[in-house]
From TrEMBL, chain A:
The keyword tRNA processing does not apply. This is Phenylpropionate dioxygenase, large terminal subunit. GO terms for molecular function: 2 iron, 2 sulfur cluster binding; dioxygenase activity; iron ion binding; monooxygenase activity; oxidoreductase activity, acting on paired donors, with incorporation or reduction of molecular oxygen. Keywords: 2Fe-2S, Aromatic hydrocarbons catabolism, Dioxygenase, Iron, Iron-sulfur, Metal-binding, NAD, Oxidoreductase. It comes from Blastococcus aggregatus. It comes from the Bacteria. Coiled coil: none annotated. Residues 239-272 are annotated as: Disordered. PANTHER family: 3-PHENYLPROPIONATE_CINNAMIC ACID DIOXYGENASE SUBUNIT ALPHA, CHOLINE MONOOXYGENASE, CHLOROPLASTIC. Belongs to the bacterial ring-hydroxylating dioxygenase alpha subunit family. InterPro entries: ARHD_Rieske_2Fe_2S, RHO_NdoB-like_C, Rieske_2Fe-2S, Rieske_2Fe-2S_sf, Ring_hydroxy_dOase_asu_C_dom, Rng_hydr_dOase-A.
From TrEMBL, chain B:
GO terms for biological process: 3-phenylpropionate catabolic process. GO terms for molecular function: dioxygenase activity. InterPro entries: NTF2-like_dom_sf (IPR032710), Rng_hydr_dOase-bsu (IPR000391). This is 3-phenylpropionate/cinnamic acid dioxygenase, small subunit. It comes from the Bacteria. Belongs to the bacterial ring-hydroxylating dioxygenase beta subunit family. It comes from Blastococcus aggregatus.
């Protein structure tokens, strides 16, 4: 494999040539190859908006939470003014990880190596994360050390979306709102309480973290719209039944049987790479609970939300599973949880899972959801256990020389995309077996990895060539009419 | 030399408890899960907290997530354990199909408290799993068990397991630890 000779990218189309969305064929090299992985680290992760953590994990000044952005360790901190900062967790002197704690509270990070210290206290430094203390500064540097230049590296952009904290290293990157586009309806359902209260959720304490021997993209793809795997992969958990209805009841809830999972449901695929296995016009019913008082809570929440959203002219669907390009996956119903697939090598990934709950949930609901999440998801979850087996051995058995000569098949629903009311997206009526989302994800992925410039990336995202109608204007489901800024129609689809 | 009756009694108790824990390990490693479930009391509670890296002085307050309110690897009772056994017995649970080779080592067994008919026991565990070919996991840590005398044997009432990993280095926990 020698196709990617210049991982920093020169506009050459090496990686895009491996992702043939017209034929629905994608090379196995993109899951295995070292050079492509290096190009991902160089060109994708430093430019994409990445999920870092939840604001409720750092409620007070000085609180911090250790996270990752791509292969770089970062600290999500709250400074003494209450603002969120995302800092590279590596000393500017010799690179030592200044903080090896997973969480805690401090306004100063002191490197153990030579004791350079960095402050997030605005009364000591102008910029949170700035270099504050240098042992023997005068003896070593005289007056030559420009401390303002040697603070912890800060993420260029940080965005708190209803408690979901994202960051981006690239000052040239589009705003979070532009990057997300109409996919925000799914994030809203994730971040809002079940009764529709905006941002009314918090993260339980405790993030599941585990290593898998898989390429990170298998993980993103699985939640992006692969509803096809459920029947086989999760046959055992479904046969046993771990759902809200009690022992023997389906894992997502009994009402899913009333056509709930597939009837009237469509996949939604965004040109920017995001994808959801449902559409916002389709509202899944709340599950049926074995215990009456739980049922009462969720019935009331569903009714209240319905009233609120309908008054705002909003549709009720959009709970996923879904993936925000490139590596944040989530489901906003049962369960309601966030996953990030951190890349370690082409064949190794660290998976993190956060679990959300309504801030106002009574103790019984909080405890029931917690137990349901733990038996469902994470490495001990009876559903998720079987996913890792697939991802790991799909990765391993694609490493061989012969295997790598044969691409994967992504032809489900090829050419059958239909128009969507949401800007920059299409639907696929294939509720279960449709791969439209994966094709769009890898197409976008290749455009990033080939290091297309932001103007090029933005231009490509503004015209969706997958339907005959170019979506240049869309009715905003919140009520008004939203017109995309300066839609510059390019000549036909980009070369693959 | 007079026989220390109290010491003798304690040694016999420890022997009985150890024998029970070794037999439990055998049943698990021989995949006799249904028989194993009978060793758990109906009110069995099992918890495996997450372990975090926290600063000196904060370990008591923060190192482990708390059962009953936060996210753990496991925090469940016998009913969910039974569902896990049912899942293994479907033959379709791909995470354990083909089945893994597992050995449970139990050591450093001590009686922490004797309050018959219940006793508190602490031990170390080492659970080795090998599956397919080179997939190999070591799960090591401390365990506290609460056992209850039932007839001439015991049942496990409560089990708290402290796994010595913060990031789980195994791809899943599809075996009983």
């Amino acid at each position: 494999m020698t196709t990617v000779e210049e991982p920093t990218g020169t506009g050459a189309r090496q990686v895009r040539s491996l992702v043939d969305v017209q034929k629905g064929e994608i090379s196995r090299e993109i899951f295995i190859d070292e050079q492509i992985f290096k190009a991902e680290l160089e060109n994708l992760f430093p430019r994409a908006w990445l999920f870092v953590g939840h604001a409720t994990q750092v409620p007070n000044p000085g609180d911090f939470f250790s996270s990752w952005m791509g292969a770089d360790p970062v600290l999500l901190t709250r400074d003494n003014k209450g603002e969120l900062n995302v800092l590279l967790n590596s000393c500017r002197h010799r690179g030592m990880r200044v903080c090896r704690y997973d969480e805690g509270n401090t306004l100063q990070f002191t490197c153990p190596y030579h004791a350079w210290s960095y402050s997030i206290d605005g009364s000591l430094v102008d910029t949170p994360g700035a270099l504050h203390g240098v042992p023997q500064q005068k003896a070593a540097y005289g007056t030559n050390l420009e401390r303002e230049k040697w603070g912890l590296v800060r993420a260029a952009k940080v965005h708190n979306y209803k408690g979901l904290v994202f960051a981006n290293w690239d000052p040239e990157a589009p705003s979070f709102d532009e990057y997300v586009g109409d996919f925000h309806w799914w994030l809203d359902n994730l971040a809002d309480a079940f009764d529709g209260t905006e941002g009314g959720t918090e993260a339980y304490r405790g993030v599941h973290k585990w290593r898998i021997r898989s390429n990170w993209k298998f993980v993103s793809e699985n939640f992006l719209g692969d509803t096809y795997h459920g029947a086989s992969t999760h046959a055992s958990v479904e046969a046993v039944g771990i759902g809200p209805g009690g022992k023997g009841k389906r894992r997502h809830g009994e009402r899913q049987n009333e056509g709930g999972f597939s009837k009237g449901r469509m996949k939604t695929s965004f040109r920017r790479g995001h994808g959801a296995s449902d559409n916002i016009a389709y509202e899944i019913p709340y599950p049926e609970f074995a215990e009456d008082d739980l049922d009462d809570y969720f019935v009331a929440a569903w009714e209240k939300r319905k009233e609120k959203l309908q008054a705002e002219g909003r549709l009720l669907g959009g709970r996923g599973p879904a993936t925000l390009f490139p590596n944040m996956s989530f489901a906003a119903g049962f369960p309601r949880t966030i996953l990030v697939a951190h890349p370690i090598s082409p064949t190794e990934t660290e998976v993190w899972r956060w679990y959300l709950v309504d801030k106002s949930a009574p103790e019984k609901v909080r405890d029931w959801l917690r137990r349901y999440y733990m038996r469902y998801a994470g490495p001990a979850g009876m559903t998720e256990q079987d996913d890792m087996e697939n991802w790991d051995y799909a990765t391993e058995s694609s490493r061989g020389v012969i295997a790598r000569r044969y691409p994967f098949n992504y032809q489900q629903g090829l050419g059958q995309e239909t128009a969507s009311d949401l800007a920059g997206s299409v639907h696929s009526h294939h509720a279960i077996a449709g791969e439209v989302n994966a094709r769009a994800f890898y197409r976008r992925w290749a455009e990033f990895v080939d290091n297309l410039s932001w103007p090029e990336l933005t231009k490509l995202a503004q015209v969706d060539d997958r339907t005959t109608e170019h979506v240049a204007e869309t009715t905003d489901v919140a009520g008004g009419v939203k017109v995309l800024d300066a839609v510059d129609v390019v000549d036909g689809p980009p070369a693959k | 030399m007079p026989i220390d009756e109290a010491l003798l009694e304690r040694m016999l108790l420890l022997e009985s408890v150890s024998e029970f824990l070794y037999r439990e390990a055998d049943l698990l490693d021989e995949r006799r899960y249904t028989e194993w479930l009978d060793m758990l009391a109906e009110d069995y509670q099992y918890s495996v907290p997450l372990r975090m890296n926290v600063a000196y002085g904060e370990t008591d307050a923060r190192e482990e997530t708390r059962a009953g309110r936060e996210i753990l690897w496991f925090d469940e009772g016998k009913e969910t354990m039974s569902l896990r056994v049912d899942q293994l017995n479907t033959g379709l649970h791909w995470a354990e199909e083909p089945v893994s080779r597992v050995s449970h080592l139990v050591t450093n067994i001590r009686l922490d408290a004797v309050e018959l008919p219940e006793v508190s026991v602490s031990c170390r565990f080492l659970v080795y799993r090998n599956r397919v070919a080179d997939e190999t996991d070591f799960l090591v840590g401390r365990r506290k068990d609460r056992l209850r005398q039932v007839g001439d044997s015991w049942q496990v009432v409560r089990r708290e397991l402290l796994l010595d990993q913060s990031v789980l280095l195994a791809k899943n926990l599809s075996i009983f630890v």
